[in-house]
Q: What sequence folds into this?
């Protein structure tokens, strides 16, 4: 049995068109598609005390205005020091996984993608 679940970032479900099918007793097939992450950010409200710095961050590409203009998504720096924006990862073709059975749990295997 293949179970799928939605993963959320706050209240936002992460988008994915990649599906998993069972191709045999110990075979999983990831069907071509894409997965979009939300990136790492903090949501900041526009207030008189934050407008100047937020406008600067918008110009520098470290932030984006959210619909309505009352809030800004401010990207957090990654290990490389660059903003961790949302990104889409694409699996261009189906991927077949042959799983070796586990002697301790012969009827169960887990894969986290």
A:
């Amino acid at each position: 049995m293949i179970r799928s679940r939605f993963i959320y970032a706050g209240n936002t479900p992460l988008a994915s068109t990649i599906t998993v099918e069972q191709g045999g007793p110990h075979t999983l097939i990831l069907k071509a598609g894409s997965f979009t992450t939300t990136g790492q950010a903090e949501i900041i409200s526009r207030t008189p005390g934050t407008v100047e710095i937020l406008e600067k961050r918008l110009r520098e590409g470290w932030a984006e205005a959210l619909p309505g203009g009352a809030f800004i998504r401010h990207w957090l720096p990654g290990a490389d020091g660059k903003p961790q924006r949302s990104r889409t990862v694409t699996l261009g073709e189906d991927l077949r996984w042959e799983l070796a059975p586990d002697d301790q749990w012969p009827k169960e295997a887990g894969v986290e993608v």
